[in-house]
Specification:
The chain is built from five helices and six strands, in the order E-E-H-E-E-H-E-H-E-H-H. By secondary structure, the protein is of the alpha/beta class. Strands 1, 2, 3, 4, 5 and 6 form a six-stranded mixed sheet that branches. Strand 2, helix 1 and strand 3 form a beta-alpha-beta unit. The termini are far apart.
């Protein structure tokens, strides 16, 4: 059975920061995560270190999908970048919080709030508890 999975990338400028907004739709699982991994790896090779993941139309995420998010989070933070998430459904949010991912990645209720956080990233890092840093 074929499951819907789509990716869309939209570059967004926030002050002097170039943010890659990535819309993820459908099912992110063991059969689709390589597409997301390939896209994020390609963006990273192009020098993009700031990502806003829009999960509004994400219906399902497996451990493989969560693994991709953790991997790219580690890579961008090593390069002084960051990853933020918006529009997470309640179903996905429960899994996210249950597994402790909310301690490592910030989830925002709106795109505007997340983009503002990129603009104020130095202040946000200073307020972070040491155990929240990855």
């Amino acid at each position: 059975m074929w499951k819907k999975f789509e990716l869309e990338t939209i570059p967004v400028k926030v002050d002097s920061i170039s943010v890659q907004k990535v819309r993820i739709s459908g099912y992110l699982d063991s059969s689709t995560f390589p597409q997301l991994q390939e896209l994020l790896d390609s963006l990273l090779r192009q020098g993009n270190h700031f990502y806003l993941l829009d999960l509004e139309n994400l219906d399902y995420i497996s451990s493989a999908g969560l693994g991709v998010l953790m991997g790219i989070l580690r890579e961008v933070r090593e390069k002084e970048g960051d990853l933020k998430i918006v529009n997470m459904s309640e179903k996905i949010e429960r899994v996210f919080y249950l597994l402790g991912f909310s301690r490592l990645m910030k989830v925002y209720s709106s795109e505007e709030e997340a983009l503002q956080a990129f603009a104020n990233r130095d202040q946000e890092r200073q307020q972070e508890a040491p155990e929240d840093r990855f």
